[in-house]
Amino acid sequence: MSPSSTRFPISGAAIAVFVGLVGGLVILALAASDSPFADRFGGPRIDRSGRLSIHLNGVSQRMSRDIFLPTKGWVMQLQFIDLSIPQDLEGLVVILRSERTGATIEIQDRFLLQAGNGAHHEITIQDQPIQLASLTVPRNLGLAAGLLSVRVIFTDASGNIFEDSRRIRIRSPLGLPPISVRQVIHFDFEIDHDDDGLPDFWKDLELFGLASAEHPELARVIANQIESRALLRVEAAYTAEHDPNRTGQARDPVRVRFRATEDPSALTTRICIGGSDPTKNHLVGHVRLDPQNEDKTSQECAREPAAGLFPAELETYRDSALYRETFGPLLAGSGGQAVGQHPDDSVASLSNLQDRDRGSEGLSRRQVKILRAITIFGDALGSIMAHEAGHALGLVPEGRPSVGLFGGETGGDYAHNIDALGESQPTAWLMNAGEDLNFEQLAGLGKAGPLQFRPLNYAYLRDRVIVTDKR
Ligand SMILES: [Zn+2]
């Protein structure tokens, strides 16, 4: 396995907002039929210009031609461009037809909106808002392996007809899911490479004014809060709630757990967090790509070759406005005072700040500043942890589907998201190359909010897309 390097210098990448909804599914008819769709839906007025289009796991037709989907369930989305769609998607018909058996399934998906969310699935791509509706095609639809024709027809209120069709490759799963259902990722913040008896991470915090050498007791208090915050960010990125495919599935076959402590009973990949990049390349993270999560107990802690996360390298972002605003009040060089240098700082005053924050009344100005730095640092570090854990779980397989998932094969693109043309992604996704993500985005304060997996990445994590190992 070759190493995957993640560098995170600053750059301004375009961002997409991905807010979504899911529909309900109604199967109207299940019939064996050989009659071509055109007999029933043909006609000269049908608009096939792409205003209605089929996507798989969020990936457009041009990109997803070679994707293999498992019989046990997958996600299809419909994208509507400049179409007036009723909330209940009346007028929409989806027809699936097995090319092998000729069996046809007609679906009128009513895309019932989830409670509390009042709009259609809306995303922007390069600042162009589009409407998207998701459909989870479940296992119990009885889809056999083989080629499946999908035709989607939407008739708007004025009687205009829009259509898209494509063929989808369905395969039986190749054995077990790529990621073990018992997989644990252990983020080890206690690593002490320099043997001074204290976690290297505490020393990292001094670079950001979040600790000072004379007050290890305060470093511990701050480190604990950053660790919790970062772990929450990781868990959020991997939860179904943040599934960009919006499947609405309560259960998925694959669920990875994340821990800041050891779990001897499970298959555990250990990723150490602390120190600066021993290779002097200023990488924030350096975790090997593990295709299909083959090594479920890998150790990402070594110095030679260097592996792990190196929080000290977050200093790379020191020119960012958010960085200066956040850490300036804690850095002597900017006229600030580091944690432990201010008379009010104590274990009592700095413990559990998040829990005690009740707006302007709950905390002192000093406490608010420190809490802000904990939050921003924790969220940015958490995004990088989620990204590096993605590498350890096999993201992003290099090459095109079905062998890869549009992961780059060389340089900074290696094991990171690219598109069908080999270009970087305009949308700020979690598994984009590190140099394409800036500090604001890592902290979840970019236009897209907290970084998410690209839908195709997420489908892999949940075993809803088949990656073959044949090259
Ligand atoms: Zn990376």
Description:
The relative contact order is 0.18. Strand 11 and strand 12 form a beta hairpin. The chain is elongated. By secondary structure, the protein is α/β, with parallel strands linked by helices. The chain has two domains: 154 residues, Sandwich (Immunoglobulin-like), CATH 2.60.40; 211 residues, no CATH class. It has ten helices and 18 strands. Strands 2, 3, 5, 7, 8, 11 and 12 form a seven-stranded mixed β-sheet that branches. Strands 1-9-10-6-4 form a five-stranded antiparallel β-sheet, with no helix packed on it. It binds zinc ion. Zinc ion binds next to helix 8.
Can you tag this structure with a few keywords?
2 domains; Immunoglobulin-like; seven-stranded mixed sheet; 10 helices; alpha/beta; binds zinc ion; single chain; 471 residues; five-stranded antiparallel sheet
